[in-house]
Write a structure and sequence with these properties.
The protein has one domain: Rossmann fold. Helix content is 23%, strand content 23%. The protein is built from five helices and eight strands; from the N terminus they run E-H-E-E-E-E-H-E-H-E-H-E-H. A hairpin with a 2-residue loop joins strand 3 (68-71) and strand 4. Helix 1 (28-36) packs parallel to helix 5 (202-209). Bound molecules: zinc ion.
Length: 210
C-alpha cells in the first residue's frame, strides 16, 4: 500500500518567538527531517491566512485571544495573528530540509473560514485538497507529524479516518498546545477513531519505518 508522510504546519509562527509558539516546537525538526528521507510521497502543509482572518482575535473588536466565537458549525477559537500569507512567520522552519519532490498544501486561505484539517475547512465540508493529492498518488495510508498535536494534527487525523485512510501519528514528531486539557482530549479522540500512535525517536525512525 502506498503511504504518504504528511508534515503539518512546521512554521515559524508556531515555533519559539512566534505569536502562537507551541512548546518545544523545534523538537520536531530532526524527527521530521529523518522521516522525510524515508517516504516517496511527502506533503507539507502550511497554515496560510489573509490579513484580518476570521481566526484572529484582532479581527473581532472586544474579543481576546482564546475567546470562543460561535459559528454555524461550532466554536471558533480566536488566536493571535499568525501565519499571514507570504510573511516570514508563515514560512516553514528554516531547519526543515524539504525534499525536492515534496508537495506543499496551504490551508486556511479563505478570509472567513479556518482550516485545522488539511482535508476540510472547519465547516467539515469544504475541501482543502489533501484527499485529492493522496488519491492521485494512490495513497490509502498516511503518517502524520508536525504542529500542533491537539489542533491541526488532530483534525487532519480524524478527517483521514472519516475518509477511510489508515493513520499513524508519530508522537516524537509532534508537539501540542494543550489549551484547557486539549492534548489529553485529542489523544482520546484519536484513539477512539482508530488512529495508530508511534513514538520512534529520531534514531529509530530509519530502523522502524525504513
Ligand atoms: Zn491558523
Amino acid at each position: 500500500m502506498n503511504t504518504a508522510l504528511v508534515v503539518v504546519d512546521v512554521q515559524n509562527d508556531f515555533c519559539s518567538g512566534g505569536p502562537l509558539a507551541v512548546p518545544d516546537a523545534e523538537g520536531v525538526v530532526p524527527v521530521v527531517n529523518a522521516l522525510m528521507e524515508r517516504f516517496r510521497h511527502v506533503i507539507l502543509t502550511q497554515d496560510w491566512h489573509p490579513p484580518g482572518h476570521v481566526s484572529f482575535a484582532s479581527s473581532h473588536s472586544g474579543r481576546r485571544v482564546h475567546a470562543r466565537l460561535p459559528t454555524p458549525f461550532g466554536e471558533q477559537i480566536l488566536w493571535p495573528d499568525h501565519c499571514v500569507a507570504d510573511t516570514t512567520g508563515a514560512a516553514l522552519h528554516a531547519g526543515i530540509r524539504v525534499p525536492s519532490a515534496a508537495a506543499v498544501l496551504r490551508k486556511g486561505v479563505h478570509h472567513g473560514a479556518d482550516a485545522y484539517s488539511a482535508f476540510f475547512e472547519n465547516d467539515g465540508l469544504t475541501p482543502v485538497g489533501l484527499d485529492a493529492m493522496l488519491r492521485v498518488r494512490s495513497v490509502r495510508a498516511i503518517v502524520l507529524a508536525g504542529l500542533a498535536t491537539d489542533y491541526c494534527v488532530l483534525h487532519t487525523a480524524l478527517d483521514a479516518r472519516r475518509l477511510g485512510y489508515e493513520v499513524t501519528v508519530i508522537e516524537a514528531g509532534c508537539r501540542g498546545i494543550d489549551l484547557d486539557g486539549s492534548l489529553a482530549e485529542a489523544r482520546k479522540r484519536m484513539a477512539l477513531a482508530g488512529v495508530q500512535r508511534d513514538w520512534p525517536a529520531e534514531e529509530d525512525v530509519a530502523r522502524r519505518l525504513g
